[in-house]
Design brief:
Elements (H helix, E strand, L loop, with lengths): L1 H14 L1 H18 L4 H19 L10 H33 L6 H28 L4 H40 L8 H23 L4 H18 L1 H16 L7 E4 L2 E8 L3 E6 L4 E5 H6 L2 E3 L6 E9 L5 H17 L9 E7 L4 E9 L4 H21 L23
Antiparallel strand pairs: 1-2, 1-5, 2-3, 3-4, 6-8, 7-8
Length: 412
C-alpha cells in the first residue's frame, strides 16, 4: 500500500496536466470574463491556480514546509515541461510543417516554422515556473519568481506575435515583388516600424503588469512626440508622401515618368525622396511630398502611340492632285498592320501663309517608343514617295514680293 501511494505521488504530475488544465480553465473563466488582465499576468495567475489544483488532487498541503511530495510534483512539472516541449516540436509542428508543404500557399510554410520556437519556449516556461510555484520558498523569492514569470511570459508571447507578423509581412513582400507593386519598396521600413511598435507595446504592458505607472510614461511620450513632430515636420511630410506614392502606385521602379518638368527613369523610392535618372544620365532626388502633390505622367504605361503631323504642299498643286494624294495617304496608313485603322484621319485642312496643309492623325498599336518610331518612319517615307510620284512639292516658308511696273518714261 505504501509502495502504491509512493508511486502515485511520483508519477502524478505526468498524468494530471489535462485534468488540471481543464479544472483551472473552468475555475478561471468567470474571473477572466469579469476582469480583463494583461496576457502575462493572466498566465501567471492561471499557473498558480494550476499548481493549487494539482496539489489538491494529490492531497498535498499548500502551506507549511516542503515535503517529498512537493519535490516530486515540482520535478514532475519540470520533466513534463521538457517532454511536452519535445512533443510540440517533434510531433505537432513536424506534422503541421508537412501539412503546410502540401498546400498551395507559402504563408503556412513560413508561419509554422516561425511559431515553433516561441511555442516551445512558452511550454518550457510553464513547466519551469510551475515547479517553482509548487515549492514553498520565502516571500522575497516568491516575489522575484512572480516578477520573472511575468517578464518571461511577456517576452515569449510578444516574441511569438512578432514572429507571426514577420512571416505574414515576408509573405506579403514576396507577393508585392512578384506583382511589381510599389509597396514592395516600403516593406523593410514597415518591418522596422513593426519591431518598434512591438517593443514599445511589450515594454509598456510588461511594466503595467509589474505595477509601474504607465500613464505617466505615455504622457511624457505624448509631449515628446509633439516636440519631435514640430521639429521634423518636413521629414514627416515626406514620409506621408511616400505612403501616398506606395498606396496609389502612380509609377514603379524602372518606369519612365514625368514629374512636373522633369522626365526620367525611377531608380529608387525611399522614405524621404524618389530618385530619377534623367535623360542626360544625371540623378535627381525629388522629395516625396513634392511627388505626392505634383502632376505625374507615366510614360511607360502607354496603351498605344498617337501620331499627329501636318505636311504642307506648295500652292502650285491642283485640287485633283491634292484630293488623290489625301486618298492615297489614307490608304497607305490603313494598310499598315501596325496601325489601328478606325482612328486614322487624313484631311486637306488649311490654306496657310506659304502652304496648303494636309492634317494626318493615326494610332500605332505598339506602345513601345522605338517600335512606334519605326512605324512612323516607314509611313513618312511612303508619303514622300507618293508626293514625288504626283509631281508635287513640299512647301517651306517663303515670301513673294510683287513690285508694280513703272510708267513709260518714268525714272526709278
Amino acid at each position: 500500500m505504501n509502495f502504491r501511494r509512493s508511486l502515485l505521488v511520483t508519477l502524478a504530475p505526468l498524468a494530471a496536466p489535462a485534468l488540471a488544465l481543464a479544472q483551472a480553465a473552468e475555475a478561471a473563466a468567470p474571473a477572466a470574463a469579469a476582469t480583463p488582465v494583461p496576457a502575462a499576468s493572466g498566465t501567471t495567475d492561471l499557473l498558480e491556480h494550476l499548481v493549487d489544483v494539482v496539489l489538491a488532487v494529490f492531497h498535498v498541503p499548500n502551506t507549511g514546509t516542503n515535503t517529498l511530495a512537493h519535490y516530486c510534483i515540482a520535478a514532475g512539472f519540470l520533466v513534463g515541461g521538457v517532454l511536452l516541449r519535445r512533443v510540440v516540436t517533434n510531433i505537432i509542428f513536424h506534422y503541421l510543417k508537412k501539412l503546410a508543404s502540401k498546400t498551395e500557399t507559402t504563408l503556412d510554410d513560413k508561419l509554422f516554422p516561425a511559431m515553433e520556437a516561441p511555442t516551445a519556449t512558452f511550454v518550457m516556461l510553464l513547466g519551469l515556473f510551475a515547479s517553482f510555484k509548487v515549492l514553498k520558498l520565502s516571500d522575497t523569492a516568491d516575489h522575484y519568481i512572480s516578477l520573472g514569470a511575468t517578464v518571461a511570459f511577456s517576452i515569449a508571447i510578444f516574441w511569438g506575435l512578432y514572429r507571426a507578423f514577420d512571416a505574414v509581412l515576408e509573405h506579403a513582400h514576396e507577393i508585392a515583388k512578384e506583382k511589381q507593386m510599389g509597396v514592395a519598396a516600403f516593406m523593410p521600413w514597415i518591418k522596422k516600424t513593426l519591431v518598434t511598435v512591438f517593443v514599445i507595446i511589450g515594454v509598456l504592458l510588461t511594466a503595467q503588469s509589474l505595477g509601474f505607472d504607465v500613464k505617466a510614461a505615455l504622457g511624457a511620450l505624448g509631449i515628446g512626440g509633439l516636440a519631435f513632430a514640430l521639429a521634423a515636420q518636413d521629414t514627416i511630410a515626406n514620409i506621408f508622401g511616400s505612403v501616398v506614392v506606395a498606396s496609389d502606385q502612380p509609377f514603379r521602379i524602372g518606369e519612365t515618368v514625368r514629374i512636373g518638368a522633369h522626365v526620367g527613369t525611377v531608380e529608387d523610392i525611399g522614405l524621404r525622396s524618389t530618385k530619377l535618372r534623367l535623360v542626360d544620365r544625371s540623378l535627381m532626388s525629388i522629395p516625396n511630398r513634392t511627388v505626392a502633390n505634383d502632376a505625374i505622367t507615366n510614360l511607360s504605361r502607354f496603351t498605344a502611340r498617337r501620331v499627329e503631323q501636318v505636311i504642307g504642299l506648295t500652292y502650285g498643286a491642283k485640287a485633283e492632285q491634292i484630293e488623290g494624294l489625301v486618298a492615297e495617304i489614307r490608304g497607305l496608313i490603313d494598310a499598315d498592320p501596325a496601325i489601328n485603322a478606325a482612328e486614322t484621319h487624313v484631311y486637306f485642312r488649311d490654306f496657310s501663309a506659304s502652304s496648303m496643309d494636309i492634317w494626318i492623325v493615326y494610332m500605332v498599336k505598339e506602345p513601345d517608343f522605338a517600335k512606334h518610331l519605326q512605324v512612323r518612319q516607314r509611313l513618312n517615307l511612303a508619303i514622300m514617295r507618293a508626293v514625288e510620284a504626283r509631281g508635287l512639292s513640299f512647301a517651306f516658308p517663303t515670301q513673294t514680293v510683287h513690285v508694280a511696273s513703272l510708267p513709260t518714261g518714268a525714272k526709278a
